[in-house]
Specification:
By secondary structure, the chain is an alpha/beta fold. It has helices at about 1-25, 55-60, 70-80, 100-105, 120-125, 130-150, 170-185, 220-230, and strands spanning about 40, 45-55, 85-90, 115-120, 155, 195-200. Helix content is about 40%, strand content about 15%. Helix 3 (about 70-80) crosses helix 8 and helix 6 crosses helix 7 (about 170-185). The termini are far apart. InterPro entries: Ester_Hydrolysis_Enzymes, SGNH_hydro, SGNH_hydro_sf. GO terms for molecular function: phosphatidylcholine lysophospholipase activity. Keywords: Hydrolase.
């Protein structure tokens, strides 16, 4: 069966390459979010949120970071913990794979109370293996913990590219299968204490959720994604131990 799949992939290669080139040429290139990449919301004891990753952390598809994933996550935390000052920090590079994030962004991570890692789309597009993706994610978790402290690390689920409206078939099917494999690899890291994986629900990828490029989330998509992530976001509280998930009181 594996040999048959490889043979079919070989036969489809010219079509896949042509589709990939056409998508790259015709997809509008949107800028990252403008404005500060960090800020504070509310007053009280600090609650430090760091979000690190690819273009969705860079805020592509939103005007400012408050409209994008990090800002929406911070707003959710501020509402859930009104007695805390939420200090948020967005570290994103458009087009970054997990390896690029490890090399270029992780060294900029500061002490935090929770770190959210948002990756997988570019590793999917570059057809990286699940083993490589898992290895790079593991290195990110280790290095983040070395810099931020022994805090919860949340791995946002890899978006299922089979639901991206800008991708034609069969390219969409190939990338969809690859994104599922990478997401499963990320989920395997939850065996580590304090590591949480929150999958991206397919319902969040409805047409109205996308930006003008039909590839990145728009503000509505970011808001919905942040709300879904917030439901499973583990927060450090007094006496927290790795693996514990704290809920708002």
């Amino acid at each position: 069966m594996a040999v048959l799949r490889l043979f079919l992939l070989f036969l489809m290669a010219p079509v896949l390459v042509a589709q990939a080139v056409r998508v790259r040429r015709t997809t509008p290139r949107l800028p990252g979010a403008t404005g500060p990449i960090e800020g504070t919301l509310g007053t009280g004891r600090p609650l430090r949120l760091t979000v690190i990753g690819e273009s969705t952390v860079d805020g592509v598809g939103a005007l400012t970071h408050m409209d994008a994933l990090t800002g929406q996550l911070a707003l959710g935390l501020a509402r859930a913990y009104p007695d805390r000052e939420v200090q948020w920090h967005a570290l994103g590079i458009t087009g970054a794979s997990a390896r690029v994030v490890l090399d270029e962004l992780v060294p900029r991570v500061r002490e935090a109370d929770v770190v959210v890692v948002v990756l997988g789309v570019n590793d999917t597009l570059e057809l990286h293996s699940a083993a490589r993706y898992r290895r790079d994610l593991l290195a990110i978790v280790v290095e983040v913990r070395r810099r931020a402290g022994d805090v919860p690390v949340v791995l946002a689920g890899v978006p299922p590219l089979a639901s991206f409206p800008s991708l034609p078939r069969p390219l969409r099917d190939l990338l969809g299968a690859r994104s599922v494999a990478l997401d499963q690899a990320a989920r395997g890291l939850t065996r580590l204490p304090g590591v949480t994986h929150i999958p991206l629900a397919p319902g969040l990828l409805r047409p109205g959720m996308f930006a003008a490029d039909r590839f990145h989330p728009g503000p509505i998509g970011y808001r919905a994604w942040a709300a879904a992530l917030s439901e499973g976001l583990p927060i450090v509280t007094d006496g927290w131990h790795p693996g514990e998930v704290a809920r708002p009181s």
